[in-house]
Structures are given as C-alpha cells and as structure tokens.
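User: MurR/RpiR family transcriptional regulator, Microbacterium commune:
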Amino acid sequence: MVPRTRDIGNGLTIARRIADRRRTMPAAMSRIADVVADHPAAPVELTITELADRAGTSAATVTRFCRALGFDGYTQFRVGVASEIGRGDAEESWHADMGRELSASDEPGKILQTLLNLHVKSLQSTARGLDLDAVLRAADAITAARHVDIYGVGGSGVMAREFQGRLYRIGVNAHCWSDVHDGLTSAVLQDQSSVAIGISSTGRTEETVQMLSQAQSAGAFTVAITHDIDSPLAALADISLATAEPTAYLRPDDLSVKHSQLLVLDLLYVLAAQQTFGVAATRLAASAMAVAPHRRAPRAHRPDTTGP
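Assistant: Predicted structure for MurR/RpiR family transcriptional regulator:
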C-alpha cells in the first residue's frame, strides 16, 4: 500500500509544490530544496540523515520540509519522489533504507551475524580512535561542574537522555535538552562553573550546534561527541571525543552510531563515578533501594515432581 499523504497537492508534481512554497521557506528548508532540485533522485538514494547533512541542516528540518509539501514524513516523501522519477523498485528502496549488507530474503541468523559484525567493528573503531586523556579531562570537568547540560536531537537525543539519567544517579546535576528553545534557555544561564555536552554523529545538526554555541558563549566548558572532528560542533568544543563513522553498509545511520556513542558515554560515566567514588557508591545504593519495591521478586524454584 502506498503511504497516504496529508495533502496530495491537487495533482501538482513535487517540483511544482517546492517551487510554489519556495519564497516562504526558511533558509534551512531552502537548502534542502536546492539539493532536491540539483539531484531529483536524492531523497530515494539518501537516508534522512544523509539528506540533512548534504543540505547542512538537521533531520528534524527535513521532516518539516516534507510536511510543508503535504507529506506525513520522509518515508512518504521518498515514495512520492520514487513514483515520479520511475524508481519505485522495492529492492532499491530496501537497499537505500537498510543497506546493501542486508537482504530482504536473509534468514534471521544471517541478519543477526551481519549486525553483530558491523556493530563490533564500529565499537572497535571507536575504541581505537579515543583519546583517553581527553576523556578523563571531560570526566573531571563533569564531576567538578555546578551544572551539566547535555544537548542532542533525534537519535542523539535518546543518548543524551540516557547519559543524563546515569549522571543524575551518581549525584551530578545533569539536564538534557532536545528542544532547541528549551536548550537555548538553559544554555544562556550557564557560566564558567558549567559543562555543556553536544552529541551529534555528524556534528552538523543545527539545533545541537546552536545550543552548544550558546553555552560556550555563556562561559561553559564544552564537550562534543561526534564522528567528524572537523564539524561545526567539534569546532565549538574545548574537548572533542570521536566516535566511529557510520558504516556505509548499514542504514539508517542510527543503527550503526548509537553503540559507538553509548560506548563513549559509558566510559565518561564510569570515569566520573570513579572521581566521586564515595558519593557515587552511596547514591547508587540509595537509588537501587528506592526502586527495589517496584521490582517483582524472582519466582521461587519449584521442585521437580515428575520423577519416579
């Protein structure tokens, strides 16, 4: 079934719809329109993250662009583009979305092994590229900070929330922000006693760059977690921690970057807990006791009554 759109544009082609709305588009959306105009097949060939990168904007902005054209989201937009340019082939669409290492006919065991191999390679690449001295300096800054802000959007926002929860449990006054308005409001209140952490695989997510930039301007010590050390996000940071580049064979990028990001965040978390061992241990025990009543006890072992 072809995904439904909110507004089919009265039969207008996608190119016509873009042209009609071009004058009222914000600059970031206009750059997406430029990419699509120059390369009409780009939405079919690129993931939402890749299209955002090529346009120098964020995945969230690409979604807003699609909705401005009358589509529910990027998937529906891609189907519309594929239909217009005659590239609605299901196999090609699968490869664009899931990667060429995975086939729609693969057995579950093969899929599992392929994913395992790719994730292990990503983790190993991240570990090899990490500057442990830089990680330790970042952990020291986190434990000494009055306030820690963590910024991330989309998949990186999930990682930001995970890291915030861990830090909070060991007594770090940490807060995470995915909404740029909320994040900027917090960032402007930071100072030299604060730490601000921006998480973005590409380092080019506009909202994350804006939030970290504002925190830097306010005087916060800044940390970037990204695979691109030459990205705008990394350029803002006092310390930049590199993750592995997304593999070209696994899509969407979120499938191959989250484990790399989580490895770096886990390392930061454990090092921060080491720095405040006594306090951290006490708080972890207290939080475990607090939630214990909400966990069901293991089932009691039942003796075997089937024997002779």
